[in-house]
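Retro notes - structure team

What went well: the batch runner handled both jobs without manual restarts.
What didn't: labels got mixed up in the shared folder, which is why I'm recording both outputs here explicitly, each with its sequence directly above its tokens.

Job 1
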Amino acid sequence: MSLVYIFTFSKVETEQVARLMGATAAVKPGARVGPVRLGANDFLLFASDMGPKIARSLADSVLNNSNPAHGATVAGPRPDAVLIAGLCGGLTANLQQNTIVTYRECQSTDGNGTAYGCSPSLTGRISRMVISTGVSCESVVGITSPKIATNKDLRLELARSGAQTVDMESYEILAVAHKMGIPVAILRVVADHLEMRLPDLNRAINEAGSLDQGRALRVAIGSPLLTARLVAANKRAMRHLGRALEVVLPSDCFADLPLTEREVSSNNVPQG
């Protein structure tokens, strides 16, 4: 039996994963769901707001038990593995909406020059499990940014790093797990493709690096069509990912990882 921590960073991500875990009530940011047993695994879901600062704080608290500000979320038992599940943006033309991806490694825009690799064994097992259902699953390099890539120019700029997808949290979780020697898999789905324009939600990002709901509402009112398209795209993408998670979560993907896997998963990979 494996203990797996799952991290989600938006309402639509959390709703989908919590539903698969049997939650019947709404799960707010900062809440924990579980432990819940699904098939061969016990899962704890940690729901959070978006943004790298919040993700790093949560990871320090939950994985490293070093952040008293989040003392209420400290999980206790060390997990056998970590799964980050949710949305991402596509940075290349071949990654269309609803494409499911696993990360080989993740970079950051903070300029520190280090990328961290995900667990090869765990990632490979998850990818093969998804593909066995008849759904394609692409292996990618991701990048974490504190800003939302709202248009093609911004996405192409991020792609110059060699990344194919972008999100706002994965690197921070991976960096802490690297220090702790905990295998990590990142399973995401492309919600917005290279050509897609988004409302300028960067104007709604607060000092904590997350969305201020009041500001976000004003942005949404000012860009109703773009907002409606984004919300619909996010929901469609998460339903697509949800079908993959239905197969992955109760499987034996997380069991009996090689003893050396913790060393492999914590090797840092220099950026190209």
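Job 2
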Amino acid sequence: MKDKKTIIVGVTSGIAAYKTLDLVRSLKKDGANVFVVMTKSAMAMVPSSKFKKTSGNKVYSELFKKGFDYKDILKIRRVDHIDLADKADVVVIAPATANSIAKIAHGIADDFLTTMLLATTAPIIICPSMNVHMWTNPLVQENIAKLKNLGYHIIEPEEGKLACGYEGKGRLAHIKMIKNEVAAQLKYRNSLAGKKIIVTAGGAVEKIHRA
């Protein structure tokens, strides 16, 4: 990554959350500015302090800080989740649980991560990780299909030994694969930078009425 880009890494409460530290470390090593957003449950898996140390930036998780006063927001006209959404060149959710996928697919915004996702115009990459039976559940597959149709980029899980003891598809995709997709989305965005695009649906056909 030649130009310093801003990558937002969302972490939800899958066991694979510890692997995301390697993703953040790798993106940071390549020169990206990485911000991490964690759900409350994700912080039970991996302490936010580890992501703060690895990214070198503040970790976001709370929509409303202790002592929140709406008057402060009206003074500065700045809200963290909108500010972060605007900064993003690419957003990647790794791991993405069945619950987080369902919320994203249905536009539910009840925490910092899901609220920020609704506000960003950056490409969003979702990396599911869960039990094999959860992954094959029709409801989960329906949500995945919906997100694909909406333009989200899905990196499907790998097959192998899962943390729950099962064998099958559900393991978080390899960090290198996720990083390659981030690079691909950045490259695509850069290829359109500074260009004007005209979209035409063809000529209009109208009847000519005599006066």
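One thing worth noting from job 2: The first strand starts at residue 6 and ends at 11.
We'll revisit the folder naming next retro.
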